[in-house]
Design goal:
The protein has 8 helices and 6 strands; from the N terminus they run ααααααββββαββα. The chain has a 6-stranded mixed beta sheet with strand order 1-5-6-4-3-2. A hairpin with a 4-residue loop joins strand 5 and strand 6. The radius of gyration is 26 Å and the shape is elongated.
Length: 234
């Protein structure tokens, strides 16, 4: 059973550390401590103070930073279930966005306007369990080393993007591709055909020294080889 007196005392301490002196936020903090428990509430306080130390969180419109209490409440909302969020803040769970009517104009997010939202998102980053990147194009010079081969590719074109997304910058993105010898041996002859394209699947990581993306190939083929195999399976 939750120690009511202890929860109230901890709630007062959290409110004091967050600088919340008004009755409503203090009451809100007490509800959170009672519902989540002292240990979890104190952990969320520590996380909120750490976020503040790193520069805080912006409001969704980027107009200003959240207060320390606002950061704490935002963290609580992202750490509890939709039902708990409704019980604590009396807000309905988020609903699926309605589709825009046919013919309606969807304004794209401008590249400059992405920064406030992107910086807020970076304050509470998720964790990626797997990354796969696919490159399709012609390789440059192939540099062979005893352990692997290396080639470089560059891209300035992007795909047709869904409505609302910002237009991708036209600054070239450079990719350095690392390929095992056994994989390259399977496509080297095909790459002598200037009408064929290399298809690389692999893990991607940013390479600050080369100012581009490093791609560690896990599978490679060519466009014509892939098309031929598809035809054989029919």
């Amino acid at each position: 059973m939750q120690d009511t007196d202890g929860a109230e005392q901890v709630a007062r301490q959290i409110a004091a550390q967050l600088g919340e002196t008004a009755f409503a936020p203090q009451r809100q903090i007490q509800r959170i401590v009672t519902a989540l428990g002292v240990t979890r509430a104190q952990a969320l306080l520590a996380e909120a103070l750490a976020v503040e130390a790193r520069g805080g969180l912006l409001l969704p419109d980027g107009s200003r930073r959240r207060t320390p209490g606002g950061v704490f409440f935002q963290l609580v909302k992202t750490r509890v279930s939709a039902r708990q969020c409704w019980l604590l803040f009396r807000r309905s769970p988020p609903r699926r966005a309605k589709q825009a009517p046919a013919g309606a104009t969807v304004l794209a997010l401008t590249w400059a306007a992405r920064l406030p939202a992107a910086r807020e998102a970076q304050q509470q980053q998720g964790v990626i369990d797997d990354v796969k990147i696919i490159l399709v194009g012609r390789p440059g010079v192939v540099v062979s080393r005893p352990n692997c081969v290396i080639t470089a590719m560059s891209s300035t074109r992007g795909p047709s993007l869904p409505k609302g997304l910002p237009v991708a910058p036209t600054t070239p993105t450079n990719y350095t591709v690392y390929i095992a010898h056994k994989h390259w041996a399977g496509v080297a002859e095909a790459m002598t055909n200037p009408d064929d394209s290399l298809v690389v699947e692999g893990w991607a990581a940013f390479d600050p020294e080369l100012e581009g993306i490093a791609v560690f190939a896990t599978f490679i083929t060519t466009q014509l080889t892939r098309t031929e195999r598809k035809g054989q399976r029919r």
